């Protein structure tokens, strides 16, 4: 491929319009995404190294980042488990309403986050449908870190299902059958034959759900309670810093989040590239 | 080859897009006299009534009509920030002078001595801080001292973003100064314990009210007096009681014309008249009806005035040396709030 | 992964699927797993959706109508439609251009470009708003210049559109790129060889080929554009009747003790979500092969 060819910026092609298409793309990308993000880095850098370090390591920043990242990690894990089960059920079993359920999985993609936020808050508050069932046991979900998890699980669910589902659908039967015929138990077949090729997709879905959850704002703020150090997520901390005229502080926290998230997306692409080499198309 | 339906869809989309672009431009150019009042959280109901009354009065007397007075509400500090960032407010009606000071300093759109331009420290109404408790007052909360009892959950918004919360905090501080005879260590201990009893810290007063009333969290809600009355009105007097503490703070929510914006927009006369209107008998009556304490109670319905309990009030200037001093001492980075706020969990 | 790309394998697979059934879990395990999935979905997806409609109708039809036709609500609906009407076509044009460049040509830095286009997916919505405040706010990098020329971006329509374009930037391109890649360039090359003009080739070959995945991308892009909250919240200024979009209006009503009205407006957005899902499902059933390539988001 390109690596063995003599250096050429692009492969020749008979198709027209490369310059126009790429030019338009790069212009729009620069104006809408890259320049604004550059402004963010510039603002963050303007704080000076000592201040940046102080903002990054302040207990409140750390607590918010910890909640956002650990919360997202937890939510993405729950989503990985249930998303895998859900995808499995949707692909392998026949039951009434399967197609409806299949369609419903995408709801978090389509439902505005603010709507999800007020609905979840209404359900899980101590006087809500689910909250009132848990209240006698002194379990509180809304306005605690648990509420944050609920919102993050909601918004992250489709990512895992939708990345795992196509892989499960196209899994070759013969190996599985062979394993069964050779006397492997069902559980053993699942763990040694089915899961390995699904794993990269699962991991991809996990990271996508995670990346989305880390940055989520709309659905969380209504249900979180927003107590600094306890249930305050990093995006909210950015908003609060902004509201306190602390532009540099907001930019530093934002940059930190951004770098971590971008590292995650890069790792997804790496996982996919590696999986493609090992298992063919993912 | 092309699906005809698809082609039609595409064309319709393009036309729609072009149309809406033109529409947007036209809508922006169609200038009418509109005022923008950037206010804090609990004044939504108040200004809905004030605006209707003022527009009727102004339009009856003037050829240049006012079509709308737009409102923007949020935490007082957050609102000040949006104006600093360029929100074209004609008038500011915020929760405390410190926030308008910040606008004056950073945007230079109004003079630093803005507060001297209107009577009564530019505050046409005042309020104070009271306690809202659940019906029957199950935790027997009578005064500030009861708030630090173990097991009492206090709802107050975040003083960093909410004006009301700053008045709450300072009222508690004023009580502690009196109760502990200005013993700094004891005051700090009291405030720290009080903050430790706060399970939720909303960004604005309205969010905190919702948390307490609709979500059923907390035993006592440190609230604007007007917001507490409003909650009784909205949710029924059978759900909550108002407890008036032995001492509270005179909260003066100030108003100001943003000179830089009204001069650019040519709305100075209207904006000025709007704020002057707040001091008229008609507006003072509306103010009292919305549970704010009018500066001229004689103009209001005596029934509304009778609602307001008598309470000993300290002032920000008397007890804290004004906002210019109180703001950095208590709410700036590393101020007393930062030092004392350590959540239990 | 795409059936279109692997025609032989697909046939293979189809015949083999008929004689499977050696595998499979016991009925009890199946019921357990299905039950678990349904319970999970009920708790996390369906209950919130039901809540929106139940709470919206809690105070009766008249109250619902009043909430929807209240002038500030109508203004919010109009603004939301307007923002989407500008942001979505913009992203369609750029998305098609990006997909053309990436899918039809080989060049260095392509993977980097794809990653950059994907970037807004992983940026917190709050940051998407913040960057425009830093650029165009009165204290921002271009603030003084904008003020001198009397241009208002933040707290006005342009800011709302910019923030929306930012968050929805990847949607169209993301759906088109894999589909165009799987189709290859043979059709276009043939048309050009036969003497068709480049634009004609594009409009009568390329676009029809990918129309359904384009529609699919537009659908998702539109849903996000109309529902965006965090990014527009930062740049809106929340002037009711002027810069309040529907999701922001929901928040405002919610904060005004008008829960029923908040849920009434929210029910419109939930309705939009349901329509989006229905169209999307329809597309997947009817044109599954064509858009299988873009199943992943």
TrEMBL record, chain A:
GO terms for molecular function: ABC-type sulfate transporter activity. Pfam families: BPD_transp_1 (PF00528). It is a multi-pass membrane protein. Residues 65-268 form the ABC transmembrane type-1 domain. It is found in: Cell membrane. The chain crosses the membrane at residues 20-42, 63-89, 109-129, 141-161, 190-210, 217-241, 247-271. The complex is composed of two ATP-binding proteins (CysA), two transmembrane proteins (CysT and CysW) and a solute-binding protein (CysP). This is Sulfate transport system permease protein CysT. It comes from the Bacteria. Part of the ABC transporter complex (TC 3.A.1.6.1) involved in sulfate/thiosulfate import. CDD domains: TM_PBP2 (cd06261). GO terms for cellular component: plasma membrane. The keyword Transmembrane helix applies. Belongs to the binding-protein-dependent transport system permease family. CysTW subfamily. Keywords: Membrane, Sulfate transport, Transmembrane, Transmembrane helix, Transport.
From TrEMBL, chain B:
It is found in: Periplasm. GO terms for biological process: sulfate transmembrane transport. One of its GO terms (cellular component) is periplasmic space. Its main location: periplasm. Pfam families: SBP_bac_11. Keywords: Periplasm, Signal, Transport. Belongs to the prokaryotic sulfate-binding protein family. This is Sulfate transport system substrate-binding protein. It comes from Bosea lathyri.
TrEMBL record, chain C:
InterPro entries: CysW_permease, MetI-like, MetI-like_sf, Sulph_transpt2. The chain crosses the membrane at residues 27-54, 74-100, 112-141, 153-173, 214-237, 257-279. It is a multi-pass membrane protein. Keywords: Membrane, Sulfate transport, Transmembrane, Transmembrane helix, Transport. Signal peptide: none annotated. The keyword Cytoplasm does not apply. SUPFAM superfamilies: MetI-like (SSF161098). The keyword Membrane applies. Gene3D superfamilies: MetI-like (1.10.3720.10). The complex is composed of two ATP-binding proteins (CysA), two transmembrane proteins (CysT and CysW) and a solute-binding protein (CysP). This is Sulfate transport system permease protein.
């Amino acid at each position: 491929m390109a690596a063995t060819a003599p250096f050429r910026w692009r492969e020749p092609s008979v198709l027209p319009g490369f310059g126009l298409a790429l030019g338009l793309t790069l212009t729009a990308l620069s104006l809408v995404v890259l320049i604004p993000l550059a402004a963010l880095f510039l603002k963050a850098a303007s704080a000076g190294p000592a201040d940046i370090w102080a903002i990054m390591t302040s207990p409140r920043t750390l607590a918010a980042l910890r909640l956002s990242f650990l919360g997202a990690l937890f939510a993405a894990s729950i989503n990985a488990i249930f998303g895998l089960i859900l995808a499995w059920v949707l692909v392998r079993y026949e039951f009434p309403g399967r197609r409806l359920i299949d369609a419903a999985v995408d709801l978090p993609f389509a439902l505005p986050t603010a709507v999800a936020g007020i609905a979840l808050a209404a359900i899980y508050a101590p006087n809500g449908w689910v909250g009132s069932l848990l209240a006698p046991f002194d379990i509180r979900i809304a306005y605690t870190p648990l509420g944050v998890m609920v919102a993050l699980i909601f918004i992250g669910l489709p990512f895992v299902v939708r990345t795992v589902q196509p892989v499960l659908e196209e899994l070759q039967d013969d190996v599985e059958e062979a394993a069964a015929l050779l006397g492997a138990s069902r559980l053993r077949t699942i763990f040694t034959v089915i899961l390995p090729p699904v794993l990269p997709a699962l991991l991809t879905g996990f990271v996508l759900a995670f990346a989305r959850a880390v940055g989520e704002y709309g659905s969380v703020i209504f249900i979180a309670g927003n107590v600094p150090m306890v249930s305050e997520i990093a995006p909210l901390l950015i908003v609060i810093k902004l509201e306190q005229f602390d532009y540099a502080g907001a930019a530093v926290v934002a940059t930190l989040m951004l770098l971590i998230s971008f590292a995650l997306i890069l790792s997804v692409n790496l996982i996919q590239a590696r999986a493609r080499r090992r298992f063919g198309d993912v | 080859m092309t699906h005809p339906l698809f082609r039609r869809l595409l064309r319709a989309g393009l036309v729609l897009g072009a149309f809406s672009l033109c529409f947007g431009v036209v809508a922006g150019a169609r200038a009418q006299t509109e005022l923008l009042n950037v206010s804090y959280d609990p004044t939504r109901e108040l200004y809905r009534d004030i605006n209707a009354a003022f527009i009727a009065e102004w339009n009856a007397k003037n050829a240049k009509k006012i079509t709308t007075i737009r409102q923007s509400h949020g935490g007082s500090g957050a609102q000040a920030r949006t104006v600093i960032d360029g929100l074209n407010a004609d008038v500011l009606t915020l929760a405390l002078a410190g926030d308008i000071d910040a606008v004056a300093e950073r945007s230079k759109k109004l003079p630093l001595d803005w507060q001297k331009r209107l009577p009564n420290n530019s505050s046409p109404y005042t309020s104070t801080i009271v306690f809202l408790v659940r019906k029957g007052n199950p935790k027997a909360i009578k005064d500030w001292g009861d708030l630090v009892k173990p097991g009492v959950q206090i709802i107050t918004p975040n003083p960093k973003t909410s004006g009301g919360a700053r008045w709450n905090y300072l009222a508690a501080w004023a009580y502690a100064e009196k109760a502990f005879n200005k013993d700094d260590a004891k005051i700090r201990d009291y405030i720290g314990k009080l903050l430790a009893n706060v399970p939720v810290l909303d960004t604005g007063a309205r969010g905190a009210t919702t948390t307490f009333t609709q979500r059923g969290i907390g035993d006592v809600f440190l609230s604007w007096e007007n917001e507490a009355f409003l909650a009784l009105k909205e949710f029924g007097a059978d759900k909550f009681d108002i407890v008036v503490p032995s001492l509270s703070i005179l909260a003066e929510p100030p108003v100001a014309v943003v000179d830089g914006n009204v001069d650019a927009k040519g709305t100075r006369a209207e904006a000025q008249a709007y704020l002057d209107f707040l001091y008229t008998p008609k507006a003072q009556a509306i103010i009292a009806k919305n549970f704010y304490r009018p500066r001229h109670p004689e103009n209001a319905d005596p029934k509304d005035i009778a609602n307001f309990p008598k309470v000993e009030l300290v002032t920000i200037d008397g007890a804290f040396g004004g906002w210019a001093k109180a703001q950095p001492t208590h709410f700036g980075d590393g101020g007393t709030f930062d030092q004392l706020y350590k959540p239990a969990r | 992964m795409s059936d279109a790309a692997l025609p032989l394998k697909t046939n293979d697979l189809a015949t083999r699927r008929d004689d499977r059934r050696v595998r499979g879990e016991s009925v009890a395990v199946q019921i357990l797993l299905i039950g678990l999935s349904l319970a999970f979905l009920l708790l996390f997806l369906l209950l919130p959706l039901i809540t929106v409609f139940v709470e919206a109708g809690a105070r009766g039809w008249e109250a619902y109508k009043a909430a929807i036709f209240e002038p500030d609500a109508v203004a919010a609906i109009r603004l939301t439609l307007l923002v989407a009407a500008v942001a979505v076509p913009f992203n369609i044009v750029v998305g098609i251009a990006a997909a053309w460049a990436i899918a039809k040509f080989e060049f260095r830095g392509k993977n980097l470009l794809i990653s950059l286009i994907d970037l807004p997916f992983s940026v917190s919505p709050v940051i998407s708003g913040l960057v425009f405040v830093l650029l165009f706010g009165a204290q921002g990098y271009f603030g003084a210049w904008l003020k001198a020329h009397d241009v208002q971006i933040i707290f006005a329509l342009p800011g709302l559109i910019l923030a929306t374009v930012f968050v929805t930037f990847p949607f169209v391109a993301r759906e088109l790129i894999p589909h165009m890649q799987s189709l290859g360039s043979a059709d276009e090359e043939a048309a050009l060889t036969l003497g068709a003009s480049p634009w004609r080739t594009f409009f009568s070959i390329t676009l029809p080929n990918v129309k359904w995945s384009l529609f699919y991308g537009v659908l998702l892009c539109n849903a996000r554009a109309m529902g965006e909250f965090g990014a527009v919240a930062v740049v809106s200024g929340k002037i009711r009747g002027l810069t309040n979009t529907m999701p922001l209006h929901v928040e405002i009503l919610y904060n005004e003790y008008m829960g029923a009205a908040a849920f009434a407006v929210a029910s419109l957005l939930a309705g939009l979500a349901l329509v989006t899902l229905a169209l999307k499902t329809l597309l997947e059933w009817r044109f599954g092969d064509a858009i299988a390539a873009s199943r992943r988001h």
